[in-house]
Design a protein that fits this description.
212 residues; mainly alpha; 9 helices; 0% strand
Length: 212
């Protein structure tokens, strides 16, 4: 079970700065659950130490800055970045090749889904930057849309569950996997719809060519 109790005093003391700083650190693949930071920010808002709406904005900014920093580092340094020690542990040659294959198969949908994939989020964003799979504006747009979905879920969950921490910890432990599966199912459905549309368009164009 996730232990929020050890995090709450730290967040109560440092407030917005703690949430913002930890979210940026999380963007580099440091094994601190991002949802813990967001939920903790919501909890201290519910306890009166912060404004929940400002906390949402701070959380969103921290998530986007952390993600875009990783992307930009990969984009700037390219494959040279893979030689750095912590990057080698985070993004092995096998994982790098695998993510490149995923990008070629699933395209931008993989970037959207990555926001809901702890453990793979940073390697995917880093690989996207190294390969320059999308431009910076496109990356921010995709990641921003996904973050607008995920960030308020955790922040407001913490806010409304601030007075029931035991229930909140139990709910998080049970729901993390389910939330991930739900988002992956949505992404998969969108991918299928996109592929079907492409097939139909190709089939229609072929019929038009034959008819001409």
């Amino acid at each position: 079970m996730i232990d929020l109790q050890t995090f709450i005093p730290f967040f109560e003391h440092y407030g917005y700065a703690a949430v913002f700083g930890l979210l940026i650190i999380c963007g580099f693949g440091v094994p601190i659950p991002e949802d813990i930071s967001l939920v903790s920010g919501g909890i201290i808002s519910g306890l009166g130490f912060a404004n929940v709406h400002v906390m949402f904005a701070v959380g969103l900014a921290g998530v986007l800055i952390g993600d875009s920093t990783v992307y930009c580092l990969g984009r700037h340094f390219g494959t040279r970045f893979l030689a750095i020690g912590w990057v080698q542990r985070l993004l092995t040659p096998e994982r790098y090749d695998g993510i490149r294959n995923w990008l070629s198969r699933y395209g931008r949908w993989l970037l959207f889904a990555a926001r809901f994939m702890p453990g793979l989020r940073t390697p995917i964003f880093l690989t996207t930057g190294i390969t320059r799979f999308v431009s910076m504006p496109v990356f921010l747009l995709i990641d921003g849309v996904a973050a607008v979905i995920s960030v308020p879920v955790w922040v407001y969950l913490g806010y409304f569950g601030a007075s029931r921490k035991e229930w909140l910890m139990e709910w998080m432990a049970r729901s993390q996997f389910g939330f991930l599966i739900l988002m992956l199912c949505i992404v998969l459905a969108l991918v299928i719809v996109t592929l079907v549309k492409k097939k139909l368009r190709s089939f229609t164009e072929k019929l038009e060519e034959d008819g001409a």
